[in-house]
Amino acid sequence: MRGDDLALVAELAARRGLDRAGYAALLEGLTPRGEEELFRLARETARRQFGRAVYTRGLIEWSNVCANDCLYCGIRRSNGRAARYRLSREDILACCERGWAWGFRTFVLQGGEWPSGEEDRFLAEVVEEIRRRFPRCAVTLSVGERERAVYRRFYEAGATRYLLRHETADPDHYRQLHPASMSLERRKQCLWNLKDLGFQVGTGFMVGSPGQTAAHLARDLEFIQELQPHMVGIGPFVPHRDTPFRNARAGGLEDTVRLIAVLRLMLPAALIPATTALGTIAPDGREQGILAGANVVMPNLSPAAARESYTLYDNKLSTGAEGGEGRALLARRLAAIGYTLSDSRGDWRPEGAPEAEE
Ligand code: SAH
Fold first, then answer.
1. Predicted pLDDT of residue 3
2. Pocket of ligand 1, candidates 167, 243, 307, 313: which has the most ligand atoms within 8 Å of its Cβ, to mutate?
3. What mean pLDDT is predicted for residues 330-352?
4. Considering only Cβ atoms within 10 Å of each terminal Cβ, which end of the chain, N or C, has fewer?
5. Mean pLDDT for the chain?
6. Does residue 235 line the site of ligand 1, with CB under 6 A?
7. 54 CB under 6 A from ligand 1?
8. Spatial separation of the C-alpha atoms in residues 216 and 255, rounded to whole Å
9. How far is CA 78 from the centre of its chain?
10. Is the CB of 238 under 6 A from ligand 1?
């Protein structure tokens, strides 16, 4: 072990990063005192950049039809028990309509992926229409790996943000979680392409996915430091009963909030959600995430039937404070820990820059 954990926390905060060995040592050797200091610094860093405001994004799960076969995911291609659906253009616009009325100014379209000219055209047209009807909103896409030219079309259509978790930055671990047809290199290239095209880019990984070690996580952090994304989404792995990992252990709350705090110190300006998976594994998971430096929540705007069928993992929350209709409840829960739900669009801005007029 290289130095004590307090020294590593101080170095991380001062230099906005460690090397791979430093991350591994920090994750393996964190003492209660080191952890307290890590949370304190991460919380302060988030408050310096965002005050007590938490941004919201409305999540629209537009399709669970997927060509991929990620071993952890409930909507993987070979899960014959998933009831497949695709929302129509009118369904999606109705979600935005409701979301706008509830106060959402960012719409995130997420889904399985069935790459085809038809699906790409459909998404580009829907994005254009959302931007036409709600000119002051932002549209985020989270629809997986596409050719660079397709990403460009999405950007020109008006989607300016893109979420694509790299899932794990270790090639061997990647092969444990994905079929041989999928490639970590291709996924990373997609992220670089998105960044290069001008998107605000989000990446991330699951915490406690099967086979994950501290060395793997250190590599994830190292990759994120290299990419310098605008957003980072992490959440615990949660098993799904119809996947090969049905009997695997779920990722931990403690591990997840610690990593949120590390990410906040690495990337003071990043938009970091307290994810649904975090809220799913513990009743106060969302609040603990915010207190560790997260500053975004993403309630669900999908129609009820879609929420049922978009089960990435067992018991995934989509109602109460995780539902768009529960915005007032969510605001009360955040108020209870001293935070307010922001009604701004919540664009990324450089460290120290004030929030721009929208
Ligand atoms: N097809 C898109 C969207 C994937 S779903 C894409 O590939 O980007 C969004 C995220 O849910 C994934 O990136 C993954 O990290 C997470 N996820 C999938 N299955 C999960 C599980 N069993 N537990 C926790 N998170 C999971």
1. 52
2. 313
3. 97
4. N
5. 97
6. yes
7. no
8. 14
9. 24
10. yes
Query: Whole-model pTM above 0.70?
Result: yes
- Given a contact cutoff of 8 angstroms between Cβ atoms, the answer to whether 191 and 151 are in contact is no
Distance between Cα 354 and ligand 1 center (Å)? 32
Over the stretch 260-271, which tens digit does the pLDDT of each residue have? 999 999 999 999
Give the mutation target among 110, 165, 173 for probing the ligand 1 site: most ligand atoms within 8 A of CB: 165
CB 130 within 8 A of CB 140: no
Whether 345 contacts 331, CB under 8 Å:
no
Query: What long-range pairs does 289-292 form, CB within 8 A, spacing at least 24?
Result: 289/256, 289/257, 289/260, 290/54, 290/334, 290/337, 290/339, 291/39, 291/43, 291/257, 291/337, 292/39, 292/42, 292/43, 292/257, 292/258, 292/260, 292/261, 292/264
